[in-house]
Amino acid sequence: HTHTLHAARAAFMTLDLCEAEQSALAREHVLTARLYTDDPHSHAGPRSISPFAPCCASRLPVVYDAARLTRDSVVWDLGCGDGRVLHDAAARYGCRCVGVEIDATCLRRCASRAKSRGPVVDTLCRWHLADVTAAPEGVLGRDDALAPGTPAPTVVIVFVTGHGLRAISPWLKREWERAPRPFTIVTCVESLDACVDYRDGVSFDDFDPRAANPDGWEVYRDETHAKYGVFVVPPRCVSVEAWRASRPTPRACGPGSVAADAEPVAVVRNVLTDAECAVLHLFAASTGFEGPHRTRTEDEEEEERERMERGEARGGGGSL
Q1: Which of 121, 138, 300, 318 could connect to 117 by a Cys-Cys bridge, CB 3.0–4.6 Å?
Q2: Rg over CA atoms, the chain
Q3: Which residues contact 18 (CB under 8 A, 6 or more apart)?
Q4: Percentage helix, strand, coil for the chain under 3-state DSSP, each rounded to 5
């Protein structure tokens, strides 16, 4: 118990590895925005509990790893902002995603950007204009509770200020305890067991982890994830110890494993210069990759040129 209190205090006092990047986004999106408006559907309005600042790119892979996402996951982002966390989750994992946001402008951006990512991401994502603080009891535990066709979550992501996290903590704890389908909670920057309302003027010296965790959250702090400001509350049926013990074994990523797992490489003519091709061959040789490759036929090259002329993409993502 003492170790947990020390860990919570350290989490409160320590900046994470994304701090510089996240602070730059905060300056760009928060300090240049209107600080207050009467619009109820604005992140600066009277019903908002947190201003909008997007999650920095360097934190996203850590969030997904901490959440242990798979194709079968259903990811909710409470306060989804411009939707980038869910856009990438849907694209990378093929999982269903639900964004809940109080800001109408942000929500329109979510839908627009999902459509621009292609039909797969657009189909996998749903967006809802809603005030989380006024959400009905049981909304996280049942399919269709928020809206028809909206699945209940297996993972809930929350990236808001300490003030916002404290505001929804009691409600979120009730949902987590009572949901028929247990779900994991992932928070960024702030952890549920050590979040404080900055409006209360709490200083580092006065911080008391026991007072900061009135709802009795038990939080898992992975050594790597915590360095990036990412914290996990396992599903209620799984203890922190069991969650730690069941952590997936990372895949090997050295040259040997890359060569062993690599897909066949297709070579497209007349796209790269001879010098660029030479650089790629040197890189392949440096990794030890000697996998199979083939040259595309003229019909395949012509089909690719026609696709490019029509502005069509060759799929949901790319790999080198």
Answers
A1: 121
A2: 22
A3: 56, 58, 59, 228, 229
A4: 40, 10, 45
